[in-house]
Structures are given as structure tokens and as C-alpha cells.
């Protein structure tokens, strides 16, 4: 019996190392994918922060500032390039998988921990969740899982409860969705210590320390903005506008969003998710803290992807640790069936992982970086932003300002030129909420006052969404550009062909052939 268990353990470890090796190799192969919009926003605002500009003071965003602090650290340590950002993502992903291994081992056993870690690494690699791009969800999971693991392991050490809350508070500071991980921590903590036989002094102490740790990052940030006189910017962006943003989608539309995006995730990853389903069924027979933890973590992780009912593909990353833990529980349950001896459970897990990789093999192993980006993001100009930014950088001074009429903040980051307006996205300007008209007027005023050297006009629906431009903004832009600027560059974007770049005098005589195009306007001398 011991020799069989050791053989199973060795086989499982070998399979895990091979699987993780494949994950690392694929991520390394695609390190150079261009930044998408959110990455561009994080990188640009982090770039500004490193130059002494607090988030929200010169750029508007509804995200909490933790992600900009994280990106600032990445840029300072690894450098300012897509490769450095995605290399840091690889490290964060592996560290998160390791924490999940520790959590699975603590909850169930060594085998379940290994299976959970490997399943997580493969699931979060999936292009159906935009797993190659360094969205904030990846960076939420590392401190969130660290805090939950510390809470799980805490006994009578008060400092562990504080640091557990502190880690979860850091996750919340990165993205508001992490509030549900914090709530799970409170509920789980209460279930462990609030009992009739337990003196009430200790539970209140532990919950108080946990809450104090969780609130510390947010309170510190509020004090930072208050002391600098910029609290109103912080409050408007992250609370007032964010509250409007999460109330725009109806329940019916939200359900359709979930069905559409989860169907693609299920199609690509169903072998592992079937193992998760087995795990969810198997925990019904468990008793004690493991059952409550696994089911509670599953439910609160799902809630973390629901704010606003948008269900964007990368939101689902927040659900993956819970599903990976359940996959580990499903794998561990296979050992409980008397007929599944020797290497059969390991074979089942290997088959689940292998099928998941094979379903997505073209993206993982063969598609070049530009084609991989186009497959996931369609006609969005993420590769083209590199060339546009290079032209702007080569034809302007470092202190020059630029503006983008569209939602492509990565152009600001690549070009290393400050935005002439606080509005890095035009989405909030065309959405239906009480602040939209004021935002449009603010953007117009800022651009006219700053007189940017270049104005980039993005004629793609994905950069505006909804595609109907507010008449006030459209009429102003046409008149202002005709009066003050001339076309200096045209980028024609085609679905089946390479993009065409036309610059200088030739661009002024070139009529765009594609309905998807970008015009670069240079201020007249």
C-alpha cells in the first residue's frame, strides 16, 4: 500500500511539473502580446504615478488605485514594455497557483492541492478569459488567496487575523469586486469562532482584528487623497461614477451576458469544469469546515464576477480558484471509489488537462502574436497602437500633449506623452448617466485649453461602445479638427489583411478604404 501511494504521488508530481512547464512555455511564447485597453490604462496611470502624479488627479478611472500602484512597481522593476508586464503576470500566476496548492492541501490533502494548482494554471491560461493579458483580476487573486489561506490556518494567533484582513484589504484596493472575498472571510471567521460554547470575547477580538486589517489599506488611501487635497477626485471616480456604472445593465441583459461569455469558457475548458462539477457533488458528502469552506468560497467567488452584470471574460478569472479547488476535490474523490486503483485517477486528471490544452492548441502553440491578439479582440487596434505611438513619439517633444478621441489609453503609455484630457476613455461620455454631459463638456474644454500636438480619432465601434457618438461631441470634433489640425497619418484596419499605415503628406490625400480606420491629426503650425 505505501509503495502504491508513493508511486501515485510520483506520477501526479510528474504530471503536474509537465503541465506547469507547458503553461510557462506558452506564456513565454506570447509574452509580447500588445497591451489591451485596461492594461494600457493601468500602465499609463502607473507611468504618471512614477512621475509624481496621483491617480484620478489628471486621469479619470472608476477602478480603485491599488492596480496602479501594482503596475507602478512592475514598471519600476521590470521596465516599461508589454513583455515586462506579461512577465510579471507569469510570476503572479505561478505564485497564486502555489497558494492554491497550499490551500487545497490544508483543506483536503496533498493530491487535491496539486490538482487544484495545476487546474488553476491551465484554466487561467484560457484565451476565453483573456488569460494572457494582465488584467486586475490576476493581481486581486494573489493577496486574496493569501489572506484566505492565512485565515484558514489561524488558530489563536491574533496577528494572523490582522494580516489576513490586511491582505484581503489589499485585494479590495486593487479592484472593488474583491469585497466579496472580504465578506467570505468574515462569514467563514464567524462560522469558526462564534459558537454557544465559545466565550464571546475571542470571536469579537478576532473579527475586530480582521476588520481592522481589511479596512487599513482603504483608510490609508482615503487619508492620502485627503491630505493631498484630491479626495473629491478619488470619491467621484471610484464611488459616484462607479455606482452609476454598475446600475446600467438590466437583469435580463446581464443573464444574456453571462450565458454568452460562460458558454465560450465552458466550450474551451469543459474537461476541467466537469471535474469541478464532480467535486461540487462530492462535497455534499463531506462534513465539517471543509464543506462550508468549499461551498461558501464557490458562492462568494461567483458573486465577485457579478457587479454590474457585465460578466466580461476576464471577470471570470475571479471564479477560477474556487472551481480549481472543486476540481481538486473531484480528483481526490476519485480515490474514494474502490475500483479506481493505481494510476486511474491520475490518468483522469491528465486527460482533463490534456483535452483542455488540445482544444485551444492553435492559440497556445501556433498562432503568431498579432493573429492571437486579433482572434481574441477582433478589430480593436491594439497592435496598431504601437505604430501610432511610435510615430507620435518621433514627431513630437517629450513635453507635448496628445488626445485620443476613442478609448485607447495604451497609445499614451507607448508614446510616453501626457493626455490633454482626464478622459482616457470616451465610454463614460456616451453612456446614459447623469454625469455624461458634464464629462463631454469637460473633455472639450480641456482639449481646447491644452491644444494637444496630436489628436488621434479612432473610427471603430469597439472604441466607443455604444457606437453612437453624442452629437455634441461629434459636431465639436469635426469643427475643431478642421479649424486647428491637419491629417498626418491614416491607419486602415482590415479583417483579413495586414493594416495599412500612411503618414505625412501622403496621408492627407489618402481616403481610408476600410470602415475601421484611425486618423492621426497634427496641430497646424
**Radius of gyration over all CA atoms, rounded:** 25 Å
Largest sheet: 6 strands, mixed
Mean pLDDT: 92
End-to-end separation: 84 Å
Report the structural category: alpha/beta
Strand content: 5-15%
| Low-pLDDT sequence parts | none
Strand order within the widest sheet?
2-1-3-6-4-5
Overall 3D form: globular
Number of helical regions: 22
Task: Let me know the number of strands.
Answer: 6
Helix-strand pattern, N to C?
Answer: HHHHHHHHHHHHHHHHHEHEHHEHEEHE
Task: Describe the protein's architecture and organization.
With 525 residues, the protein is an alpha/beta fold. It is 64% helix and 6% strand. The protein is built from 22 helices and six strands. It has helices at residues 2-29, 37-50, 66-78, 82-107, 110-123, 136-153, 158-174, 179-193, 201-227, 231-245, 251-282, 289-303, 320-334, 344-359, 361-366, 369-377, 382-394, 410-415, 427-430, 436-450, 471-484, 505-508, and strands spanning 401-405, 418-419, 454-459, 485-492, 500-503, 517-523. The chain has a six-stranded mixed β-sheet. Helix 7 packs parallel to helix 9 (201-227). The longest helix is centred in the middle third of the chain and has 32 residues, at 251-282. It is globular. It starts with a helix and ends with a strand. The mean pLDDT is 92.
Amino acid at each position: 500500500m505505501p509503495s502504491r501511494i508513493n508511486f501515485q504521488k510520483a506520477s501526479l508530481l510528474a504530471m503536474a511539473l509537465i503541465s506547469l512547464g507547458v503553461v510557462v512555455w506558452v506564456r513565454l511564447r506570447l509574452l509580447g502580446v500588445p497591451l489591451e485597453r485596461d492594461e494600457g490604462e493601468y500602465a499609463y496611470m502607473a507611468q504618471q504615478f512614477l512621475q509624481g502624479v496621483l491617480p484620478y488627479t489628471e486621469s479619470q478611472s472608476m477602478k480603485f488605485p491599488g492596480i496602479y500602484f501594482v503596475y507602478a512597481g512592475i514598471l519600476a522593476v521590470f521596465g516599461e514594455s508589454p513583455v515586462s508586464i506579461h512577465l510579471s503576470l507569469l510570476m503572479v500566476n505561478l505564485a497564486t497557483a502555489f497558494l492554491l496548492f497550499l490551500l487545497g492541501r490544508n483543506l483536503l490533502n496533498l493530491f487535491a492541492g496539486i490538482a487544484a494548482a495545476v487546474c488553476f494554471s491551465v484554466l487561467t491560461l484560457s484565451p476565453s478569459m483573456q488569460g494572457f493579458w494582465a488584467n486586475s483580476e490576476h493581481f486581486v487573486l494573489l493577496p486574496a488567496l493569501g489572506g484566505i489561506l492565512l485565515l484558514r490556518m489561524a488558530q489563536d494567533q491574533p496577528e494572523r487575523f490582522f494580516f489576513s484582513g490586511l491582505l484581503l484589504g489589499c485585494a479590495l484596493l486593487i479592484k472593488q469586486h474583491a469585497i466579496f472575498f472580504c465578506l467570505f472571510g468574515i462569514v467563514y471567521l464567524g462560522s469558526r469562532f462564534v459558537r454557544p460554547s465559545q466565550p464571546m470575547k475571542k470571536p469579537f477580538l478576532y473579527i475586530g482584528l480582521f476588520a481592522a486589517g481589511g479596512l487599513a489599506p482603504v483608510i490609508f488611501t482615503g487619508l492620502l487623497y485627503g491630505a493631498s487635497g484630491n479626495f473629491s477626485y478619488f470619491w467621484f471616480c471610484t464611488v459616484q461614477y462607479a455606482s452609476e456604472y454598475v446600475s446600467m445593465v438590466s437583469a435580463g441583459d446581464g443573464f444574456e451576458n453571462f450565458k454568452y461569455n460562460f458558454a465560450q469558457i465552458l466550450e474551451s475548458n469543459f474537461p476541467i469544469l466537469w471535474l469541478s462539477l464532480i467535486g461540487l457533488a462530492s462535497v455534499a458528502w463531506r462534513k465539517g469546515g471543509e464543506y462550508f469552506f468549499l461551498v461558501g468560497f464557490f458562492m462568494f467567488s461567483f458573486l465577485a464576477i457579478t457587479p454590474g452584470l457585465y460578466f466580461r471574460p476576464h471577470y471570470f478569472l475571479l471564479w477560477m480558484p474556487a472551481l480549481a479547488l472543486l476540481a481538486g476535490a473531484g480528483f481526490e474523490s476519485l480515490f474514494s471509489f474502490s475500483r479506481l486503483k493505481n494510476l486511474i485517477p491520475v490518468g483522469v486528471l491528465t486527460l482533463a488537462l490534456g483535452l483542455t490544452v488540445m482544444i485551444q492548441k492553435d492559440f497556445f502553440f501556433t498562432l503568431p502574436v498579432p493573429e492571437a491578439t486579433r482572434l481574441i479582440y477582433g478589430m480593436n487596434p491594439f497592435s496598431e497602437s504601437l505604430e501610432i505611438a511610435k510615430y507620435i513619439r518621433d514627431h513630437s517633444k517629450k513635453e507635448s500633449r496628445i488626445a485620443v478621441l476613442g478609448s485607447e489609453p495604451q497609445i499614451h503609455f507607448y508614446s510616453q506623452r501626457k493626455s490633454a484630457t482626464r478622459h482616457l476613455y470616451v465610454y463614460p461620455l456616451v453612456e446614459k448617466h447623469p454625469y455624461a454631459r458634464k464629462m463631454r463638456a469637460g473633455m472639450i474644454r480641456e482639449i481646447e485649453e491644452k491644444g494637444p500636438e496630436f489628436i488621434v480619432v479612432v473610427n471603430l465601434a469597439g472604441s466607443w461602445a455604444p457606437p453612437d457618438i453624442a452629437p455634441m461631441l461629434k459636431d465639436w470634433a469635426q469643427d475643431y479638427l478642421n479649424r486647428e489640425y491637419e491629417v498626418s497619418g491614416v491607419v486602415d484596419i482590415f479583417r483579413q489583411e495586414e493594416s495599412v499605415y500612411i503618414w505625412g503628406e501622403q496621408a492627407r490625400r489618402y481616403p481610408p478604404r476600410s470602415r475601421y480606420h484611425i486618423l492621426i491629426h497634427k496641430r497646424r503650425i
